[in-house]
Amino acid sequence: MKVVLVGFASVLMLTVIAGLIRVERGPNPADRMLAAQLFGTTGVAILLLLAEAMEIPALRDVALVFALLAAMAAVAFVKRAWHPGPHEKGESS
Amino acid sequence: MTEWISLALIAVGAFFFLAGSTGVLRFPDVYTRLHALTKADNLGLGFVVLGLALRADSVVVVLKMLLIWALVIVAGATASHLVAEAARTSNVAPWRKRS
Amino acid sequence: MRRHTRPLERAVVFAVVWWVVAEADPEGWVFGIPFVGLATVASLKLTPTRSWRIRPAGALRYAWYFVHQSVMGGIDVALRAIKPSMPIDPMIFRYRMRLVPEHARVLFADTVSLLPGTLSTGFEGDSMTLHVLDRELPVEQSLRDVERRVADLFGLTLSAEGGNLLACENITGGECR
After folding, report:
1. Cβ neighbours around A82 below 10 Å, total
2. What is the residue range of C26's domain?
3. Which CATH number covers residue C80?
């Protein structure tokens, strides 16, 4: 059954990779911010699954730190890292 | 029996993560993508936590996972609000359906 | 409004958090007790008084509502994302809030972002702007509902004015006109 849990963790890893395609393609800086959210939430789920499957309780602490860092990263990004130009255009489609 | 319910819950969680990433890939602008990430992924994590709670050794481990989930929810809602606000104030136009 | 300090209450909360984070390891208390003390002192220095309180019964009703709505919100957005037709018709709205205190408004905005199809995108004076995935959703009613629940949680009364939703047709400079 441990194998199944690791399998689910791998599926979640694939969803992160899929999301990263968007971050890579994303025309707008805000799309890059989605990466932090993605890693925050999905990363936490992967770590919790691995903590159980591999019997490493410390991974739950890593998950806790991930959850806190994701919040910090978002605030830092919005307040400091993102300097949108005055003529920045929205996406058109 | 518990084993199977636990795995089913985790599978449902994985489905929501898949749907969330699908939304991030398919949705047309940053606002709609934030909808997908914030809501689908938080629910996915909720199901994974429930599934893992059924196989946890002690109550305190369940409480710890619930604490982490709560933190992720608060962080996710705050982050999506800030990112959407930053996008709005810098004139990122929301996608509109052509009719 | 009554002000609360309650150092003991804060220390108990920090101790419980420590107990959970340390996964009930008894050896953890060697570090836990000093840090619970330090956290209590820091919290009293940083926020000496707080003017809000949480009503336990309201908190339970809010928690149940929140869990139910966020499940609905997750299902709704998941289906829209995976359906081949991708049924979305987004729109920006502005909602005049009936909640006045800032802490209540923050909780309101965070809750709105987890509800089906709504995402808070900022505050403008007494209004909150939000992005809606599908303009056909009963947004005004859900927002009024959330406000009522948040007021119930904090034991507040809603202001008589507001509670109405405006569609933002023109969006310039992040403002809704």
Report:
1. 17
2. 7-46
3. 3.30.70
